[in-house]
């Protein structure tokens, strides 16, 4: 009996230690965001909180933080929508519309290879290409880039979920004279809705967090949150507490998502990896 | 299957193909074209000249590039190794917990959701020589502060530590999902036979988890090789070239230094190298699974 209790304590101690390591940086940066610069630099533990840093990040003349938030929202939402539509259509095509196995295999392999390539290798071409089309510093460029970058993941995930749709359901609908578009809209999509939600959330997060492409395809007007953070860190190398405030604000969406959509996130991250 | 639905397979796959060709393949083609050309701007219009494969020779002879490749490989392999061990251990511990599993899982997956840049920003502050919390903690024990990001001895390790912090939760999640889906009857049989925890681990858990472990590891290494965001903010490739990684070298050459031809050549080299390794690794794992 004592051994069981010892195990209980040991297990929880280990997990609690890990939890502390995970949470600690967030707690520390949150505290730093409410400190004055001096307070941070002398390492005060007990301090009087101030909102000055947040005011500076959000409302000062040099910062476009709110605009950047809006940009990120637009880019992430639009690219996620594109990925959902294209990936669901594509995944349904390769899983259920009678392509030879070799074709399916090759297509998925090509998508996987594309996913493996570092985005930076493509950014150069995108920079030159979009610039030539006059699309530098537009939403369209980043949205298209993000959509294409996340398409492999979208295809991979939707294929996994569509594979789980019972064939009898489709066969019954076919017998009733259902066409492909109706099939998708009336049968497949309702059944894989949890999968669509998981894919949507993951793609959204990927797009929101994306940095390399956004860094080089956007300028001041269309800069997304990660780009803004980096620029802020570089230009205000010594405004540590303001940087902390900016960091805290950028973590907020993640916290919200974690709170409301954890199960979907986990489903998306683990789908396909566990057979 | 009806003739009509078979015909539908074309238009349903078309958007994906169009997107790939237009936004992925064409730019890659452009990259190759740029890498073997000299582009002169005459009166606002670009004039292209073929100049051969000099840029590629330059890439292979670039000491910075070679350092970048070494650093990247060290970063990816070392980081992933630590992540796999920690992630697996944490997942294992979590399966031993009856209640509160969800709470731990919720806490653990937070780093995955945060932008890499923000993680870089947070850790840059934490690593700060003067007021960073790590040196503060060291100070509590009377240890002298360490210039984590500024000294060549610790910089790469420090960056790897951030990566471990960032991605161990991902490994944890996959390992947990894998462990939770293992058949329980094998464990019961082992318990009846009187197996200890270590024996259980070695003869039951690890063999059953091997496919998941391999897939996770390959996936993490693949992503690890692409590292950019954290390096950009934490060290910018420094001090010196201690944390120079391939992605950053490409960025530096192409954008910071404006060497589009050379940067393109480097991009093409890296692109095809990774594609090649990826397909080879895929081929190996497929053959292994087929023969298993």
Describe this structure in words.
The complex is a heterodimer of chains A (275) and B (292). Chain A has helices spanning 2-33, 37-41, 52-59, 65-96, 101-116, 119-132, 139-163, 167-175, 180-209, 212-217, 225-235, 240-270. Chain A has 275 residues and is mainly α. Chain A has two domains: 2-53; 64-235, MetI-like fold (Orthogonal Bundle), CATH 1.10.3720.10. By secondary structure, chain B is mainly α. Chain B has two domains: 13-50; 54-291, MetI-like (MetI-like fold), CATH 1.10.3720.10. Chain B has 13 helices and two strands; from the N terminus they run H-E-E-H-H-H-H-H-H-H-H-H-H-H-H. Chain B has a two-stranded antiparallel ribbon. In chain B, helix 8 (152-180) crosses helix 10. The radius of gyration of chain B is 24 Å and the shape is globular. The relative contact order of chain B is 0.13. The mean pLDDT of chain B is 85.
- The secondary-structure element order of chain B is HEEHHHHHHHHHHHH
Radius of gyration of chain B, rounded?
24 Å
For the record, the CATH class of the largest domain in chain B is Mainly Alpha
Shape of chain B: globular
The rounded distance between the terminal residues' Cα atoms of chain B is 34 Å
**What is the percent of helical residues of chain A?**
over 70%
Number of helices of chain B: 13
Structural class of chain A: mainly alpha
Low-confidence parts of chain B: none
Question: Which key phrases capture this entry?
Answer:
heterodimer; A: 275 residues; mainly alpha; MetI-like fold; 12 helices; 0% strand; globular; B: 292 residues; 13 helices; 4% strand
Please give a quick description of this structure:
The complex is a heterodimer of chains A (275) and B (292). Chain A is mainly α and 275 residues long. Chain A has helices spanning 2-33, 37-41, 52-59, 65-96, 101-116, 119-132, 139-163, 167-175, 180-209, 212-217, 225-235, 240-270.
